[in-house]
Specification:
alpha+beta, single chain, six-stranded mixed β-sheet, Potassium Channel Kv1.1, Chain A, 52% helix
Length: 629
């Protein structure tokens, strides 16, 4: 398969002021083949260019045979030496191999800007054929002409001057052309940087964005430039946003740019699922995390890590610039793609400043990073990153303390107590969460920060249910975090019948419930020890509730009296028996029963309605006395 282009050399090309070539007294017949190549015929001598795809060679043949072969990328060009040497200073100074070389070419241009397509434009210009400059090719042509040293010293009106004029007077005056050229510079590094093409494009974009206050306000309202800026390479985007920050653009606008760029270039989760947020939920995040372990494209992961680190480095310091939801989304991506630890800590500090605006799903941060494998297979790894949340909470408390000392503002620690309790309830269902980490996280907030301990009780109860093998000591240690006096009536009723709680805690709940019911009967609100009452417990109960509570209170009083009477009788019997005979078996059996009574263990049986009641009374006392006898 062959495709050909036939061109005649023009007799005397003339250049006008704008760099366009004009050919006089020539007959041009132009046709286009079915496969997209063009054929031009003129009356002078014929220049035949043949492209053979099997051997990937290009020939420029005419009445004079070619005397130079140049390879660019995987394409070899057979051309005449004189037209190129007359305009390219690089080809004058380069040393060519001997003619009998077996390389298949005389010269190989390594890392040529723009590749073989740009070199074809150079060849057309050297042969005196008209070339068409446009925003898509002007940057590559400018870099290629610089590579070949096509300066004015070689020939007046050389290609460097023409491309510079087109870039300066045509491209930079148009917003769309400037953005197009800047996009094309992504594959032209470092030539585009050294020739100041990138800098001049960025300066032009910045000046157009921030041109005057009135124009800026118009742009802020329309935000039409955000879409174009977010399509740029991260290095170019970073340069533009940094300059806009230096020009004191509003932090909200800078934050909006960063958010849109992150949404465009970083993989996002499915937002069509019900209940998902703008930046995904915990289920999809872990689907991404599990899927990335199969990802083999290391270069893509490195590029995403660079984007995350760059975006995090230009985040405005103001709290209102970027929402907490996006910061937590960025933190998840930073951990997933193994960003710099210093950057992760900076993100955690920023999140700590606005933690009261977070949600539970936002705090469910993955543990692993891309390609990370557990070194010790026996070590149990949690599903969520508890250490990151712990650090965020610590930063929040430090920031809160500083605000209280400097500005005397009211503490907002109570605002995140429900958030922390909800997060504890979420991670409590993970069987790999150790009791030490769970307890430290639960005790991070000051005791006065929680007006109600219902959420904390729900989290601890979930943890006890997920970890049934906990010892009695660990159960007591974990339940000490709760303050039974801050339970609502519903929580007290549930805890009183909860077999997972230690019996000592159950008795404390019963006493707390008794005090609350007494206060409710007297028409008073229960006041906690720290002078903060829960909203639910402060509401006045109805008459029906008061009546039922009063009856329950009377039953509890009767049961407590029976317990006290049985205890006194048992103690009296023990003294009699102990004086008669001090056998070891009796003493051991008695101590066991005594410790059970001192701990407040009550024998309870379930009624037909499903409620617990204490199995106490005179009959129980007589049975115990008979067993001891």
């Amino acid at each position: 398969m062959q495709k050909s282009i036939q061109l005649d050399r023009p007799e005397s090309p003339r250049n006008d002021s704008n760099g366009t070539n004009h050919v006089h007294n020539q007959r041009i017949v132009e046709t286009e083949t079915a496969d997209g190549f063009k054929k031009k015929e003129q009356s002078c001598f014929c220049l035949f260019v043949c492209l053979c795809f099997s051997s990937v060679f290009r020939f420029a043949t005419c009445q004079i045979p070619t005397d130079l072969s140049i390879q660019v990328e995987d394409v070899t060009f057979h051309v005449h030496k004189y037209p190129l040497v007359s305009k390219c200073g690089y080809l004058r100074t380069v040393e060519l191999p001997p003619p009998n070389s077996h390389l298949g070419y005389d010269l190989k241009l390594e890392k040529f800007p723009g590749g073989s397509e740009t070199f074809e434009i150079i060849l057309k210009f050297c042969y005196g054929l008209p070339i068409s400059l446009n925003p898509d090719t002007v940057a590559a042509t400018r870099c290629a002409s610089e590579f070949l040293d096509m300066t004015e010293a070689m020939e007046d009106g050389n290609l460097i001057a023409k491309t510079e004029a087109f870039f300066t007077f045509v491209v930079l005056s148009s917003w769309n052309d400037t953005v197009t050229v800047l996009r094309s510079c992504e594959i032209l590094s470092p030539w585009a940087e050294n020739l100041q093409i990138v800098r001049r494009c960025c300066d032009s974009i910045i000046s157009k964005i921030s041109r005057g206050n009135s124009a800026e306000e118009m742009l802020i309202e329309e935000n039409w430039w955000l879409k174009d800026v977010t399509t740029l390479h991260i290095s170019h985007f970073l340069r533009i946003i940094t300059a806009l920050r230096a020009k004191e653009m509003k932090p909200e606008i800078i934050g909006s740019c960063i958010i849109r760029y992150g949404e465009k270039w970083l993989p996002s989760t499915d937002t069509k699922t019900e209940g998902t947020g703008k930046y995904g939920n915990r289920i999809n995040d872990f689907q991404v995390m599990s899927g990335r372990k199969q990802e083999t494209n290391i270069g893509q992961n490195k590029e995403r890590r660079t984007i995350i680190e760059s975006l995090a480095s230009i985040l405005p310091p103001q709290k209102e610039a970027v929402p907490c939801k996006f910061l937590l989304w960025m933190l998840k991506k930073a951990i997933v793609y193994a960003a710099s630890p210093v950057l992760v800590l900076e993100l955690e500090k920023k999140i700590g400043m606005v933690l009261e605006n977070a949600s539970v799903n936002d705090l469910l941060i993955p543990t692993n990073s891309v390609g990370e494998q557990t070194i010790d297979s026996t070590e149990k790894q949690t599903m969520h990153n508890l250490e990151a949340v712990q650090r965020i909470l610590d930063y929040f408390l430090i920031y809160e303390k500083q605000q209280l000392q400097q500005q005397g503002l009211k503490s907002t620690a109570s605002n995140i107590s429900k958030l922390v309790d909800s997060y504890l309830a979420e991670i409590a269902s993970d069987p790999n969460v150790s009791i030490d980490k769970f307890q430290v996280l639960a005790e991070s907030l000051p005791r006065e920060a929680r007006a109600s301990h219902d959420g904390l009780y729900r989290a601890i109860d979930t943890y006890l249910q997920t970890h049934p093998s906990l010892s009695e000591h660990d159960r007591r240690r974990l339940c000490k975090i709760m303050d039974c006096g801050k339970f609502s009536l519903d929580a007290c009723a549930h805890a009183a019948q909860n077999d997972r709680l230690p019996l000592r805690i159950v008795i404390q709940v019963l006493f707390s419930e008794q005090v609350k019911m007494k206060a409710a009967i007297q028409g008073k609100d229960y006041i906690a020890s720290d002078d903060e009452s829960d909203k639910e417990s402060s509401q006045s109960p109805s008459k029906k509730e008061v009546k039922s509570l009063k009856e329950e209170l009377e039953k509890i009083k009767i049961q407590m009296e029976e317990l006290q009477r049985d205890y006194s009788e048992l103690q009296h019997d023990y003294e009699k028996v102990n004086n008669k005979n001090r056998k070891t078996t009796w003493t051991f059996g008695w101590r066991k029963k005594k410790s059970a009574l001192s701990d407040g263990k009550l024998d309870r049986e379930v009624t037909e309605e499903g409620h617990y009641r204490s199995n106490v009374g005179c009959k129980a006392g007589s049975r115990r006395r008979q067993s001891i006898s």
